[in-house]
């Protein structure tokens, strides 16, 4: 069932219940009021008749009948009867001469006990009233058909039914109209999304001018499409650059081997070719390892081995690691604000990945500094740990700062240096994976400062 029809039916059900309750309430109180009114009028007439009959010396039965015949109660088919304590009928009057009530003795006895009772006899409503004075004990029964009251009640019932059915029809029509208006933006959003594909991600959903829920939904989907477009573009650039980086050493290896096999050569020449191929293979192996690390850092954090890690221990292992691979690199640690509590130095994460991320930043700082020196400062606060890596190198131009974390991107001034352009991108992915952040400030010709922020572990 379409959502538009479901909304309409739900709206109709709610209105149906409300109208039914209102109409039933109005009819109930009108019915109760009519019943109470006829009972009051019949009771008053019974009391008056009983008093007349109790004064035989003043009112004889013929006079009482004349009074009854001239009494206008706006009631139809009136019948008045009276019984003594032996259940003998002592008085009777009816608008129609042949109209006589057959009253059961149980009703008379019940009236003597309760004083006044109400009952129905045929289509008439009746009251039995027990009247007692020093000279008489009689039960007076007055009955009549409330034609006017029932006609009014019937008219009210017809009005309520008409109002009820008209209200339901109007509600259905109005609900269908408004639900159609309500769902129209959804259809428009769906049509806009259908126009967007993996090869056409530039399209966006029209948000409209009204700041409502549909505007919020459209903006949310547009932000999602922006992220998807960025991801697709990043993936395409990554695949293109990775293919280029992988094909370059493979092409060099293939070309050198092909040339060396074209004719017989001396052992020294073969050795020279093998050394060149070996360098290309090492380059290819290192690139493959870096790509594997990049893929691991781009994965799901749930698949990592997450443990409490002391960040100062990772930093203290960096100077020796840098010296092992590059003897001329110098890493200076500055832990001036070390906290007394060990917990402030612990983060939840993967020690190997965190070491790789910080090592890549430190390695770049040493590589692009004339003195090959990097300074690492550690600051631990209540809920975060801040690591600053500072160098005095060539710096990064302001326009290129926003691109340095993209895979395979290299600053123009460093294009002559060896590398793949994956170090900072890998570091950024790893830090993001640990719910941290990397920011950078740089002044060309003076140096660069990277700030790594990680949340402390909460036990």
TrEMBL record:
Residue ranges occupied by any HAMP domain in the UniProt entry: 180-233
Annotated transmembrane regions: 7-31, 159-178
InterPro entries, per the entry: HAMP_dom, HATPase_C_sf, HATPase_dom, His_kinase_dom, HisK_dim/P_dom, HisK_dim/P_sf, Sig_transdc_His_kin-like_C, TCS_sensor_his_kinase
Keywords, comma-separated and alphabetical: Kinase, Membrane, Phosphoprotein, Transferase, Transmembrane, Transmembrane helix, Two-component regulatory system
Subcellular location: Membrane
Recorded catalytic activity of this chain's protein: ATP + protein L-histidine = ADP + protein N-phospho-L-histidine
Entry-linked PANTHER family: SENSOR HISTIDINE KINASE TRCS, SENSOR HISTIDINE KINASE YKOH
Protein name, entry field: histidine kinase
Organism, as annotated: Niastella caeni
